[in-house]
Inverse folding.
DNA sequence: CTGTTAGCGCGTTCAC
DNA sequence: GTGAACGCGCTAACAG
């Protein structure tokens, strides 16, 4: 058997088209790719043959011959997080304008398969965009050492051979802390995201930094979904916190739900603030105070960095996109300012 | 220049590995694929060389030689719709168990690019899963006529050369109508989804059928997002409806938000029912009466159908997965049963 | 302008 | 067991 082609998949090749049109394969190629000028009448015959036979170029063969796939790969932890679609749309748009398509894969929050998936992507894409990578630094070093275009999104690792574009999570959390401090909050709890998440550690770093302003912080392990937030919320009471910060909006919303069930009024008894500003227009039960990144810009800039990388330009410093504070209805001054009553 | 390879991308090939290990390329291939027995000591040397050189097989070359890509492609209208991640996870899982990876693309609800994307996918995947296609029947016929494995998900078109797996939207809407009728509702409004959506027309078909049970229906153009629902909700008042049905949960939630702003109490003054049972655990402001599909099963079954199709088996009849009614807090008997008072 | 030739990197027969 | 030769489908350099 010459090939593992199953069934009677009578695949039509470029030479079939050539034969049908009475020209050589190269001429067909030229017509289809506009690579060179071709006699109009021949071109017409080629086009006819193409439609007659239903010919479609084989992507693998093209990729092999050109040394390019015309594709960029994007790896995200979790497609269920509303954060990514916005990013992806921007990425797609940039990619398309460069004549590339994008293929998306998700790790399902499982760091153990992330490495393999990146390698897969590298083997079949011109460049890869790695979003919110949960990989260990060492693995990342190995991966970025291969000279294959790769850019990190929402993960900054110093001294890496790959460009990075990220929201400024540290700055975002600082904004939140500042807001809470100005409202008079002193004791803050934090529902922590995935431990392996750099974005999470950046938030925590900011929380630590905020201590200098007289804020004390209790960190509670939680997760990244509304369900996690719902489950973890009960433990906030024990911390004595008057304000609750969270890994993201989903967690915050889940927490608020639970808090209400427990009879805790938000924001009167407890202020809650989200993170990311996920667009849940007219859907969420609470108008959350939160911080936002321009997700479109994030995706766009990352994609463009990747494009320029593929074009051979070596980009430099990591880019931080600053976040913006949105004060809404889930934060208020603490009910009793213990510092004052004492 | 022999190739469009940019920069000094010193790509390492299988022969490089062979040279380094002092064997032929074929031996390397055999070792890596376990295709035939190889002397253990040689195999060891090969493995060493592979890691030393950081060799990774070129996916295009493999695909070309094997006549297989090891990939299935999935096309969805909109990644932002929480409906799809669940489906995708199931699909990925099935694909992975068959040694295939999945690449996802989205049309962004733009039917005009859908056709091209499917063709792209067909050119670079062993099979494609087309979700909620918005394409016209004629285009679909053309596409499925090519003998390339393709299965439709959530779109049934009679007489098509491709298998299909879909939620039973008609049945789902009938369940809703039955529920509303039993509560005493007679006048129902429907916030319609995208016009080009088959899923939408199935819902409408059910609504029409429900007329036989004495239900009158007003159809209002709307859309598929919460924003659409929010915008369209104001027009419901003018219809005299006591119950509002919707294209999906997102629309319903958006509508409820608007209705509340307008001072319409749900469900006391107006019952609202969703569709899909999107998991917005602890996030949504309203506990919506809705219908659900087992999205995991949907994805799983579609993926398995695709696999068997790729294996050469020709699957038969379209499969309808039945939906389930979830009565929650957004429906109630109509405030005034006009039939009675009259 | 067009046909012919030579790879792209890999899997796989075929001889040894 | 192993290497050499061939072909997968296509593009690009080379002649004409």
């Amino acid at each position: 058997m010459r090939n593992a082609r199953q069934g009677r998949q009578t695949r039509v090749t470029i030479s079939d088209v050539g034969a049908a049109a009475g020209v050589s394969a190269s001429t067909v190629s030229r017509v289809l790719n506009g690579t060179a000028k071709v006699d109009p009448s021949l071109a017409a015959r080629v086009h006819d043959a193409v439609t007659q036979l239903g010919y479609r170029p084989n992507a693998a063969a093209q990729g092999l011959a050109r040394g390019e796939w015309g594709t960029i790969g994007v790896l995200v932890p979790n497609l269920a997080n509303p954060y990514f679609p916005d990013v992806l749309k921007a990425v797609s748009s940039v990619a398309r304008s460069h004549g590339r398509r994008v293929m998306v894969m998700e790790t399902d929050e499982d760091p153990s398969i992330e490495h393999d998936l990146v390698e897969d992507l590298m083997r079949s894409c011109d460049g890869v965009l790695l979003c919110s990578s949960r990989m260990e630094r060492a693995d990342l070093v190995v991966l970025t050492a291969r000279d294959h275009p790769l850019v990190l999104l929402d993960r900054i690792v110093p001294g890496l051979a790959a460009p990075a574009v990220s929201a400024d999570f540290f700055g975002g959390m600082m904004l939140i802390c500042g807001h809470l401090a100005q409202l008079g909050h002193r004791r803050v709890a934090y529902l922590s995201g995935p431990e392996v998440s750099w974005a999470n550690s950046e938030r925590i770093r900011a929380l630590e930094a905020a201590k200098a302003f007289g804020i004390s912080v209790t960190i509670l392990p939680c997760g990244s979904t509304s369900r996690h937030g719902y489950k973890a919320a009960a433990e906030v009471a024990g911390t004595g916190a008057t304000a609750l910060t969270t890994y993201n909006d989903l967690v915050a919303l889940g927490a608020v739900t639970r808090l209400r069930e427990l009879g805790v009024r938000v924001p009167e008894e407890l202020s809650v603030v989200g993170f990311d500003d996920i667009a849940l227009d007219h859907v969420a039960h609470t108008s959350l105070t939160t911080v936002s990144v321009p997700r479109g810009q994030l995706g766009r800039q990352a994609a463009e960095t990747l494009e320029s990388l593929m074009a051979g330009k070596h980009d430099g410093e990591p880019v931080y996109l600053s976040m913006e504070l949105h004060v809404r209805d889930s934060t208020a001054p603490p009910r009793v300012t213990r510092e004052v009553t004492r």
